[in-house]
Amino acid sequence: MAQPLSAPGAQLWLANLNALVGGLFLLVTFALVSLRQVYACVRGFVAQAVLLAASAFLLAALYGNWDLMVIGVVDLVAKAIVVPGVLRQTLHDEVQTRREITQVLNIPTALLAALALTILAYFLAQPMLAAASGPAIAVNLPIGLAGLLVGAFTAAVRREAVPLFLGLLAMENSALFAGVAIAPEMPLIAEVSIAFDVLMMVFVVGILTRAVHERIGTTEVGALRTLREESRR
């Protein structure tokens, strides 16, 4: 592994840039809670993936670990380019149609819940921060944990299949956002395997969602539950 940058000024500059990227990452995660169109949710996921890659690039220079640079490239290609492409190919009408999607909670309530989860994440991160060291952990760990909780909340309150699945992918992004700071020497094969698994999940979910939409005309989870109950009768 290469040696980290020795100049304190350069380290501070990179750490501040990473903090800025972390703030934007959290803002995009909040935006995913409030977006009401599938197309906008896909773009929000792409923005989150780009910010995750930017943090990996900055930490690669900060730690002198160029495996993180490759991880950032893999993340950028897989999640910002390939995943949206697969979704558009398999679910063109579902993704491109600018229609309102339904959610269990209204936007103000959902944002307040996301804020409460973020505050909870910062409290939960304090014991881990006390036992960890590194110039970027204080930023990436609480923000990644907050994104994990908010992503789970987003998946829980969505009634549409594609936005629900994007909430799960946002959780994976958030876990990796914390992971690149906690374990910058993670094996490269692990990230490549995760990226491949994500692509396979997107492909399978896209095909299944398209089949369901063609059969019943909707991907709303509530409608699917009603259909199952009627079939039992």
Overview of the molecule:
With 233 residues, this protein is an all-alpha fold. It has one domain. Helices cover 82% and strands 0% of the residues. It is built from nine helices and no strands. It has helices at 8-34, 38-63, 67-90, 92-96, 107-131, 137-157, 161-182, 188-216, 221-232. Helix 3 (67-90) runs parallel beside helix 8 (188-216) and helix 6 packs antiparallel against helix 7 (161-182). It is globular.
Radius of gyration: 19 Å
Give the topology string: H per helix, E per strand. Answer: HHHHHHHHH
> Which percent range describes the beta-strand content?
under 5%
Task: Assign an overall shape.
Answer: globular
Strand count, sense and barrel status of the largest sheet are:
none
| Share of helical residues | over 70%
- In total, the number of strands is 0
How many H/I helical runs?
Answer: 9
Structural class: mainly alpha
Number of domains: 1
Termini Cα gap:
63 Å
The residue-averaged pLDDT reads 76
Low-confidence spans: 211-219, 227-233
